[in-house]
Specification:
Helix content: 10-25%
Bound molecules: 2-acetamido-2-deoxy-beta-D-glucopyranose
Number of helices: 18
GO molecular function: serine-type endopeptidase activity
Function: Required for arbuscular mycorrhiza (AM) development during AM symbiosis with AM fungi (e.g. Glomeromycota intraradices).
Family: Belongs to the peptidase S8 family.
Strand content: 15-25%
Subcellular location: Secreted, Extracellular space, Apoplast
Keywords: Apoplast, Glycoprotein, Hydrolase, Protease, Secreted, Serine protease, Signal
Radius of gyration: 27 Å
Shape: globular
């Protein structure tokens, strides 16, 4: 078989028909046995890889052109375009472990499709404590992040935004080794002491989709659609006063969590050719692998990744998991979004235990845009759509009653889909459109097409109280399911139903907040049921931050000609950089803390109550479980002084991987010891037990980072039907840095429960260590055998 291909190829090579031969070429990953890259420069490594390719390629030129990427840290090998025969030939060579076709794994950015825009207020600030003194303290102690470099793996940056000004910033940290790569509309003049580096990765994209169409995206680190600009400014944007725009909804100072931190931009995600922009971007595995590889080589301290795979994926199939482990090995903190596939279970991205996995929740701010009914009732709504048209009372009509003849439930009647509304029945009216099928913004376009004045987006039962505050093209507001029923009833029972859309206003201090976003991905973790994920939640709903001056704020390029400098986005893409910023400040304050220590500090100090003092709720209004919020809502100020930490080293992760028999698959040469610790013994600041058979004993170690002489007592709020105890139940410390071991025993409290078993039903509780100054909190999730 291989020979046939080879012959065909050779034959074709003699003819001017190279293309047919190139067709047989695919992207392969070639891995070597021993990683001797340690001290080598990238150039030396490339030369070595090239020399291998030279052995299988006809010409020097061909060998050079076929090498897509040489990797140093994340993977011991290279990516190249090879024919099956060349691959086969390479795989026989000494030192080569394997040659595999690179799977077409396509990752995507973790935003919802609700692109929004409005002003900003303080709830954007990650330091939510009301006392400015303590906030100043954390920021000041962390020097606003000025010595810390954050690597953004995303789709680029809009460097001209005021948020990336370097005014008054000190020199670039000396350890920085990165570059400012030239490209379309981007050169070294676009880097400064804020954006200290910028690179882009296109080989994987082009090997799948062909040459980048430059009308879709810039062939450079410049961000076209806004996502990377938004996430970067959430982490490290400078203070920009009066950052409101369009409609002047709210105004305030836009500022990132670590305003003096340095940004290193790695663009690995690109627009998909031929698809509407709001379908998102794509990030291929070999591009991501190289982006993270370079970030490690360049000397970043924290890596922020608001990207994931659409379904849960095993560590050894996941470039984010694999390359993050190599980053953590170099003491780099890796923060990732949990995904927007909620609220269903098993929907998590990025669950590896060496990553900080972040869910998304609301802030205490709403954009209230009510509907006034002619019978005197006001219906609450949400919108960030500015409109200046005369907002008088207008006829209100159900979409179902305003459609062309022949539109039935088979055509999704009631949803205001394209070409369903009859202009005769809609002209000048307000239309009630159902949410659930079709894009929310596109419904407005359909109402506009049919000559309607505005519309009301009615939630269906599943969305319930989850209100999307959108930036529509026509006057519009969104209402809950309950209010949708009221409106339907009003229309049915009124002879001439009329309504008035009242303009939106920003309301602060709304309660309860935070509460989990409907879209935030949920546990249980099915990649490894011994690890509870996500780790934490942070603001990810209606977050204002910088934008490109290129694409419209809703990313519907064809329709949206509006240009904005600041925009509102929702998604775990937005919550992830909040936690990245907190990690920057913690790293600055505690330079010796490991990535695990930083995660532990954030998790054990997280808040579990909202601004009403009650447990944080989810979209149903019930208390959120750790499968939605992890340890709770991040609380950076408290995290700076956690008292105790649950530390873990690179070696601990190797032992953990030995247990899963994955060291080899994850390309790590390591001799697993015997006997091995249990996978649930990884020193993690939370516990998940899948299918507990009566009782389980779990080992943990805490390190004192608080007062030298301190005594911590054990407390537990066990899951229903279980008991939790710790041995010992008092931990005494005499100095900082001292470690104490203990075991947690989780036991079923009634034996007969086994018969009621449902291994998918989890029960939740907490345990904590407390001294006079700290509460070191850990969630526990248990299911029966
Ligand atoms: C690879 O190809 C070269 C030349 O085409 C040949 O000399 C060599 O033996 C081949 N190696 C393997 C392992 O097949
Ligand atoms: C904020 O800081 C100022 C000046 O340091 C101080 O006077 C004021 O009391 C602080 N406000 C709060 C709420 O702590
Ligand atoms: C990048 O572009 C600038 C001019 O825009 C040029 O001076 C510089 O040499 C270029 N750098 C590289 C590495 O090509
Ligand atoms: C690039 O995209 C634009 C807009 O979609 C299209 O008009 C153009 O033909 C494309 N160019 C190429 C070379 O495919
Ligand atoms: C911000 O806007 C307000 C009102 O539009 C104005 O009074 C104020 O001077 C502006 N502040 C800055 C710093 O531009
Ligand atoms: C609602 O409409 C009534 C008239 O039906 C009017 O008196 C009232 O002011 C309106 N409410 C608001 C908040 O505009
Ligand atoms: C609506 O659905 C019916 C039945 O599937 C189909 O015959 C009709 O063409 C559809 N109409 C439109 C406008 O899509
Ligand atoms: C609401 O819409 C969503 C999205 O289409 C759908 O998954 C869900 O089943 C709908 N709920 C109801 C009760 O119709
Ligand atoms: C309203 O009227 C429609 C028919 O126009 C009917 O299908 C629906 O059940 C009615 N809803 C209520 C809540 O009365
Ligand atoms: C107006 O109509 C709504 C919906 O039918 C109803 O809930 C409300 O009670 C009515 N208000 C008055 C004052 O009749
Ligand atoms: C390791 O990878 C091989 C090949 O892909 C696969 O067959 C095996 O199941 C993997 N091992 C584990 C423990 O997942
Ligand atoms: C559960 O534990 C008991 C003893 O503790 C043992 O006899 C039994 O086989 C275990 N069940 C399973 C399914 O492992």
């Amino acid at each position: 078989m291989n020979n046939i291909i080879s012959t065909t190829c050779l034959f074709l090579l003699l003819l001017p028909l190279l293309a047919s031969c190139t067709k047989n070429k695919q992207v392969y990953l070639v891995e070597f046995e021993e990683n001797t890259n340690g001290e080598k420069t990238m150039h030396e490594i490339e030369n070595t890889h090239h020399s291998y390719l030279r052995l299988v390629k006809e010409t020097e030129e061909d060998a050079r052109a076929s090498l897509l990427y040489s990797y140093k840290h994340t993977f011991n090998g290279f990516a190249a375009l090879l024919t099956p025969n060349e691959a086969n030939n390479l795989s026989g060579m000494e030192g080569v472990v394997y040659v595999r076709k690179s799977e077409r794994k396509i990752y995507s950015l973790h935003t919802t499709r609700s692109w929004k825009f409005v002003g900003l207020d303080r709830s954007f600030d990650p330091y939510e404590e009301k006392s400015n003194e303590t906030n100043g303290d954390l920021l000041a102690k962390g020097k606003y992040g000025q010595d810390i470099i954050i690597g953004m793996i995303d789709n680029g940056v809009w460097p001209d935004s005021k948020s990336f000004s370097d005014e008054g910033m000190g020199p670039v940290p000396q350890k920085w080794k990165g570059v400012c790569q030239n490209g379309t509309d981007f050169d070294s003049s676009n880097c400064n002491r804020k954006i200290i580096g910028a690179r882009y990765y296109l080989q994987g994209y082009e090997s799948i989709y062909g040459p980048l169409n430059e009308t879709d995206d810039y062939k450079s680190a410049r961000d076209k659609d806004g996502h990377g600009t938004h996430t970067s400014s959430i982490v490290a944007g400078r203070a920009v006063p009066n950052a409101s725009a369009l409609g002047g909804f709210a105004s305030g100072t836009a500022i990132g969590g670590a305003p003096l931190a340095r940004l290193a931009i790695y663009k690995a995600c690109w627009a998909i050719k031929g698809k509407p922009k709001n379908e998102g971007n794509v990030c291929t595995n070999i591009d991501m692998l190289k982006a993270i590889d370079d970030a490690i080589e360049d000397g970043v301290d924290v890596i922020s990744i608001s990207i994931g795979f659409p379904q849960p994926v095993k560590y050894d199939d996941d470039v984010i998991a694999k390359s993050s482990l190599q980053a953590v090995r170099k003491n780099i903190v890796v923060v990732c979004s949990a995904g927007n596939a909620g609220p269903g279970p098993h929907s998590l991205s990025n669950p590896a235990p060496w990553i900080i996995t972040v869910g998304a929740s609301t802030v205490d701010r709403s954009f209230v845009a009510p509907v006034n009914l002619s019978n005197g009732t006001i219906i609450e709504g949400r919108s960030i759509t500015p409109f200046h048209k005369e907002n008088i009372f207008r006829p209100l009509v159900l979409a179902n009653d305003a459609e062309y003849a022949g539109i039935t439930s088979a055509n999704s009647s009631g949803y205001c889909l394209d070409n369903t509304l009859d202009p005769i029945k809609v002209k000048g009216k307000i239309v009630l459109c159902m949410r659930g099928i079709g894009g929310r913004l596109k419904k407005g376009l359909e109402v506009e097409r049919a000559g309607g004045f505005g519309f009301i987006l009615g939630n269906n039962k599943t969305y319930a109280n989850d209100l999307a505050s959108d930036l529509h093209f026509i006057p519009a507001t969104a209402v809950t399911y309950e209010n949708t029923l009221k409106l339907v009833q009003y229309i049915n029972s009124t002879l001439n139903p009329m309504a008035q859309l009242l303009p939106g206003t920003t309301v602060l201090d709304t309660k309860p907040a935070p509460s989990m976003a409907l879209f935030s991905s949920r546990g249980p973790n099915i990649i490894d049921p011994n690890i509870l994920k996500p780790d934490i939640t942070a603001p990810g709903v209606d977050i204002l931050a910088a934008w490109t001056a290129e694409d419209g704020p809703t990313r519907m390029t064809d329709n949206d000609k509006r240009v904005v400098k600041y925009n509102i986005f929702s998604g775990t893409s937005m919550s992830c950089p909040h936690v990245s910023a907190a990690s920057v400040l913690l790293k600055a304050m505690h330079p010796t803390w490991s990535p695990a220590a930083i995660r532990s500090a954030l998790m054990t100090s997280a808040r579990t109550t909202d601004n009403t003092g009650n447990p944080i709720t989810d979209e149903t209004g019930n208390p959120a479980t750790p499968f939605a919020m992890g340890s709770g809502h991040f609380n950076p100020k408290k995290a700076s002084n956690p008292g105790l930490i649950y530390d873990a080293s690179f070696n601990d992760y190797l032992l953990y991987l030995c247990n899963l028999k994955l060291t080899q698959n994850i390309s790590i040469t390591y001799t697993c010891p015997s006997p091995l610790p249990q996978p649930f013994d990884l020193n993690y600041p939370s516990i998940q037990i899948h299918k507990l058979n009566y009782t389980k004993t779990i080992k943990r170690t805490v390190t004192n980072v608080g007062r030298s002489i301190s005594v911590y007592k054990f407390n537990a709020k066990p899951p229903k039907e279980f008991t939790i105890k710790a041995t010992p139940s008092v931990l005494k410390f005499t100095h900082v840095g001292q470690k104490r071991n203990f075991v947690i025993t989780v036991t079923k409290s009634r034996d007969e429960l086994a018969s009621e078993s449902d291994s998918e039903k989890y029960f939740f509780g907490w345990y904590s260590w407390t001294d006079k100054y700290h509460v070191v909190n850990c969630p526990v999730a248990v299911s029966f055998q």
